[in-house]
Amino acid sequence: MNHNQPGAAGRAAASVASTWREAGTNIKQTTMKLFILVCVIAAATMQDYDVKFFEKTGYFVQKVKIDKQKDTVEFDVPKHGNVEGAKYLNDYQKRLVVMKLDSAKLCYAWDMPRDESKPIEIEAGLKHFQGKFPNDKYMVVNENMLPLHYLNSSSLTQEVKDFCGSYPVIKAALFKDKAAMEAGAIQEVKSQMSGRRKKRALTVTTFSSCTQDSSKYIDQCGRSGTDLKVTCKFVVSNTCVYQMACGFSSAGWQCPAPKHMFTYLHCCDYFC
User: What 3-state class would DSSP assign to 35?
Assistant: First the structure.
């Protein structure tokens, strides 16, 4: 009898060990394939782009992140010239545009315009212009923004919460001109005085009063809404974003001149 030959039990144990090794190898291979698949899907749904633009003294780079799965677009604009650095988030689920100012540690959010370009249209524009904002053929759009009141965190999407982090989010509104802005400021006071936001009473004084002294008139003559007067003005603080997009029609992709969009922060003084 050859004692060097394994018995039946030894052969069975070796077979089991071999099976386990093969199963472990298959699991590792499957895990790696799944990881690669997830990476491919992520790459297909999330894309990063650079937009090179020239401003007075030299070239700067704006970062753009498109996430098709979350339905968001982010713009990261560096400080340049007399324009503050700012980050923007287009949240298409909530139909909000959020502007994040690290210098002020605040976020401002306003309703997304109906004609806001979709993520796929922005991506098409970035590819069409090859990541470079033209120096000559573009449109300048000026947006007048007035802060209104805090937004409750429960009303925000997770994307907005992640974007703003610990910064408070202030609801704002955009206006075409000074008259519309002043009418909006009065309407905001009426809304707060009506009691619909009792816990946030007079928050308008915190955000949009140019001088603290003028806020006393809100309580004195703002309850009726007819005696309160307001005058709004530009605050020496502005941001901008470079936007390019293409729209699809029966004739194919149409790519109009891109937009250099400025957002001007305003404040208001109240009187009777």
Answer: helix
